[in-house]
Amino acid sequence: MSGEGDQPQAIRKLAPGKLVIASHNAGKVREIAALLGPHGIEPVSAGALDLPEPEETGTSFVANAELKARAAADLSGLVALADDSGLCVDALGGDPGIFSARWAGEAKDFDAAMALVEARLAEQPDAPRSAHFVCALALAWPDGHVEWFEGRVDGTLVWPPRGGNGFGYDAMFLPDGGTETFGEMDPDAKHAVSHRADAFRQLVAAVL
After folding, report:
1. How confident is the model at residue 71 (pLDDT cuts 50, 70, 90)?
2. Catalytic site residues?
3. Which domains does the chain have, with CATH numbers?
4. Does residue 5 carry a pLDDT above 50?
């Protein structure tokens, strides 16, 4: 989907070459690099370029992804891809949602963040444990053009967390129809079904 101006515009194609991944999250950068590698894209992280992390002031996943992508494109002069993703828990009114990373605090302690989610759920013992992950991708060019895509995967929260793979809230998220949490899955298996994979399928189909 085009994010430039009010009028519908043609999808802009992404040429092979360097692409800035506007993230300082090593796990997220690894996943994105694995998803884009087969398409002739050379991912370089914002951290490797010493780009600052902009304040995420948007009120939606798409808005935050777009502001991060625009900032990286402006500063690097390269096309930039940003991801904003998070866990939305139905019984918590969609929290932590766009604040998923902030629930982990400055130390990025996702064990503590998962414990906080579980503590909030424990206050509602009869509430459903249904949840979903959302991933919004924004692809920004230095001239201001933006394309964005949004993916989703539904599941149930388990406790205690299971598995040491993945990152963030993966170890407590069991995708619908699955027997392993994202934290237990082999990375290739997760890539096949995750919210990020869903968004990337849309991106690849549109711009590559």
Report:
1. very high
2. 84
3. 17-207 (3.90.950.10)
4. no
